[in-house]
Amino acid sequence: MPISFTLQHRAGTARVGRLDTPHGAIETPVFMPVGTHATVQGLTPRMLRDLDARIILGHTHHLARRPGDEPTAALRRRRPR
Fold first, then answer.
1. pLDDT reported for residue 71
2. What is the pTM of this model?
3. Is the domain of 73 the same as that of 47?
4. Mean per-residue pLDDT for 8-21?
5. Closest C-alpha to 51, from 43, 59, 61
6. Which of 25, 35, 36, 66 is disulfide-compatible with 56, CB 3.0–4.6 A?
């Protein structure tokens, strides 16, 4: 399933939509914590649920540096298509 965005409502420059991903749907606008350089690592899964964090952004440059290419390549190989 490809990622898609559906615009549901617009008011001036503001917009409300739905982002459909292989992992589920996300209504926008949405709070998206950034999971790089220990920003999210200091939180427990329960804290993220309490924040209603439906999506976490990750910067691929940081993933390539730590944990590195091999662990992230293994994750890509396991990813459902």
1. 67
2. 0.57
3. yes
4. 95
5. 43
6. 35
Q: Using CA atoms in the order 73, 76, 46, 32, what is the torsion angle rounded to 10 degrees? A: 100
**50 and 78 together in one domain:** yes
Between the CA of residue 22 and those of 3, 39, 49, 80, what are the distances in Å?
A: 7, 25, 19, 9
Q: What is the residue range of 17's domain?
A: 1-30
Q: Is 72 helix (H, G, I), strand (E, B) or coil?
A: helix
Within this chain, do residues 25 and 61 fall inside the same structural domain, yes or no? no
Q: Which residues lie closer than 8 Å to 20 by C-beta, 6 or more apart?
A: 1, 3, 4, 5, 6
Asked if 40 contacts 34 with a C-beta cutoff of 8 angstroms, the reply is yes
Q: Which residues pair with 6 in a beta bridge?
A: 18
